[in-house]
UniProtKB/TrEMBL annotation:
Protein's UniProt name: Uncharacterized conserved protein
InterPro entries in UniProt: DUF1214, DUF1214_C_sf, DUF1254, DUF1254_sf
Source organism per UniProt: Pseudomonas moorei
Amino acid sequence: MNKRNLLLSGLALALSTSASANFTATPEEARSIAKEAYLYGFPVVEMYKTLYTQAVDKKSPNFKAPFNQIGNTAKAFTARDTAFVTPNADTPYSFVWMDLRAEPLVLTLPPIEEHRYYSVQLIDAYTQNFAYLGTRSTGNNGGHYMIAGPNWQGQQPLNIDRLLRSESNIAYALYRTQLFDDKDLAKVKQIQKGYKVETLSHYDKQKAPPAAPKIDWPKPTPTMSDTPDIFRYLNFMLSFAPSQDVEKDLLGRFAKIGIEAGKPFNVNTLSPDQRKALEDGISDAKAEFAEFKKTKVDTHEVSSGDVFGTRDHLKGNYLYRYAGANMGIFGNSAEEADYIGYFVDKDGQPVDASKHDYTLHFDKDALPPADAFWSLTMYDGQNKLLVANPLNRYLINSRMLPDLKRDTDGGLTLYVQHQAPAKDLQSNWLPAPNGPFYGVLRLYLPKPEVTNGQWNMPLLTPVDQKDK
């Protein structure tokens, strides 16, 4: 054997030995740990996908702005926007990916009119909503708000209205500014121009601290969230999120299959049995979620308010956190918005516009109770994105009520279907794809009767297409 082959053989042996050293679980134990780690890590890795396309890959059509700068989308989302699943199309977004390693950021919000809803959702690397700014939480008068990472030890300036802490050094600020109609777009753009982001040293006119080390961002792959390769990206992202005391034992178990913050994870160095154990564990996790969605989510026993929120709110329920990231990543906490998913009809059958048309009826005095506004948005059941249609209508919301046709008794019936209904009903038509779909009814600043069960949500009623 020549020197080159000896070198390659030695390198392969070293990699294999390294993998074996990091992977200490038996195949049976590894399968169980992989299931747990997949549910835990999927939201983190899905967040990384969005981070990469919005803040790292400047060639991406979804690129918004580099880190610590704001990117504004001065339009509502359409079917062409693919950065993340189940987006809303009522509130043009602004985006700030925050790198808090060197120093905090200061977010400045302008005063805006009282009747317009807006919010800044602050999300850590685990997709947990650690705080909010905006109409509900800080009002519409504007202000200066400092976002600090877990290790910052400095002094808060006196002219900062509030200091908010992220438990991870990489975090996300997702702005929503209510758009009333097409004529309102210029006003929304003006508001967005008032959103400012700057480092604390720039804001406070002090000398900047040393820059944080440059990050080598791994390029996402098409199957990264469905194979054991997910753990490579999880290890990478965990390096920006110091471990929490409550997760010490959990992370200790994860280390038995090579999941450790900042450590390399190479699927190719695993033995066939080890790899199969991880694949089986991922399959187990997906099966658990499928059953959970069918029996808990589709039946509305578990609501959006259960699966989105702070770490304290989620109480270590990683299945819930996974469900939120899987069905609608970056969803709002319950006090900010309520999401009602229409995945099945009133008979419990999956909704499919190639098989049925559907109606959704609200009684006269039973429209969705929200202090800001409500909106029913249509999504393709396969790619979870907005549905292209000839009307370019992706939703029906409370701002459209004056243009909707009321029933003779004052109620409201919406027509959810692929083909257009009769001409006199088209104002109430929400176009669906020619196949599986789902709808999401969003209530921004929901009233108490939503959470206390006094308001009964209506269900989708199937209508045979041959009977139209």
